[in-house]
Every structure is written in C-alpha cells, then in structure tokens.
Design brief:
Blueprint (H helix, E strand, L loop, with lengths): L2 H11 L3 H15 L11 H10 L1 H7 L6
C-alpha cells in the first residue's frame, strides 16, 4: 500500500478502528487481484474502487450487533 492510499483511508474513516478494518476487508476481498507483481496496491486502483464501488459495498454490508 502506498502512503497516499493509507492517508486516504485514514481521512475517510477518521481513523475509526472498525471502519479501517472494514476498508481492509474490502481491499482483501475486492482489490487483491489489483495488486501488481511489486506486491503494492496503488492509489489509482484504490481511488477507482472508492469512487465507483465503495459506497455500494458499504451499504450492502449486513448490519452488525455489538
């Protein structure tokens, strides 16, 4: 992961641990195939996902109970 990607996740989640974990879940399940041979997820791949799919994926998550 690149530093701009990490900063964007922090900005979007305000550092909330649960949301950071949720974003990690999306990266693992939706973006793993976008990771190149250098083993780095680029900000460009993340940005495209966050603009095109992130909101829908969040809304599709089942509600959780504490």
């Amino acid at each position: 992961m690149t530093l701009p990607l990490i900063k964007d996740i922090y900005k979007q989640t305000s550092g909330h641990a649960g949301l950071v974990c949720l974003f990690g879940h999306f990266i693992q399940n939706k973006l793993l195939e976008k990771i190149g041979k250098d083993n780095v997820l680029t900000f460009s791949s993340w940005f495209n996902f966050s603009i095109n799919s992130l909101q829908k994926d969040i809304l599709d998550m089942p509600p959780s109970e504490k």
